[in-house]
Amino acid sequence: MFVDSHCHLSFSPLAEDGGAVLARMRAAGVVAAVNVCTHLAEFERVHALALREPDVWCSVGVHPDHQGQPEPDVDTLVRLAQRPRVVAIGETGLDYYRLTEPLDWQRQRFRIHIHAACRAGLPLIVHSRAAARDTLDILREEGAGQVGGVMHCFTETREVAEAVLDLGFYISFSGIVSFRNADALRQVANYVPADRLLIETDAPYLAPVPMRGKTNEPANVLFVADAVARARGLTRAQVGEVTAENAMRLFKGLSVAVNATS
């Protein structure tokens, strides 16, 4: 069995073909998907899908790259996180790739999410791009280790991975790990302890080889598992089992339904 620990089923074009996307997911043996929220205006759609589909769960949060969105506050995030089938706070974090300083608003948004996660007792889904040092510093400063979480779509160095693991976080690999020029990332995928490893699609983005260039979807998490399996000397099935167990441990609301299908 497989779990897609991070996807965006409410994004176009997946949302327009939702029934077929989920049918392909189930046919591929993907027993659960975490549909990740990126702004508050999107949350009701994200949450409605999780309520409607027995193998979809969701998060609540505001992506760091979204300017001009209503800013979240701790009380709002905690209130929404108390709804059924919400298993994480995020996607949150820092993204310095396209934006330029001053980015105090982004760092403050990140801190708010960490405070909300600590109050709600839910793990964080952390996005970090071109901002590893500040991401780690803020996680440490705000005590994020008490709730933990996952550094999603990991593309950083082994040294950053070590720091993430020291905080008690999981590390999730996307289709990028299958790309031809990703040898260094595959070495990190081999390094991460088995009990801290997750896989994801980040669909509809970052389709893995051999689907690269196409719209990504949860069924393709099997190809991410293939790339991680090759890096670690395992089979696809072994990576699937290990990462599904890890997803259940991190996102505790997944456990009953996933176990029921295994």
Write a structural description.
There is one protein chain. The protein has 262 residues and is of the alpha/beta class. It has one domain: Metal-dependent hydrolases (TIM Barrel), CATH 3.20.20.140. 41% of the residues lie in helices and 16% in strands. It is built from ten helices and eight strands. The chain has helices at residues 18-27, 43-52, 74-81, 104-120, 132-141, 158-166, 183-191, 221-232, 236-250, 255-261; strands at residues 2-7, 30-35, 56-60, 86-95, 124-129, 149-151, 170-173, 197-199. An eight-stranded parallel β-sheet has the order 1-2-3-4-5-6-7-8, with helices on both faces. Strand 7, helix 7 and strand 8 (197-199) form a beta-alpha-beta unit. The longest helix has 17 residues, at 104-120. It is globular, with a radius of gyration of 17 Å.
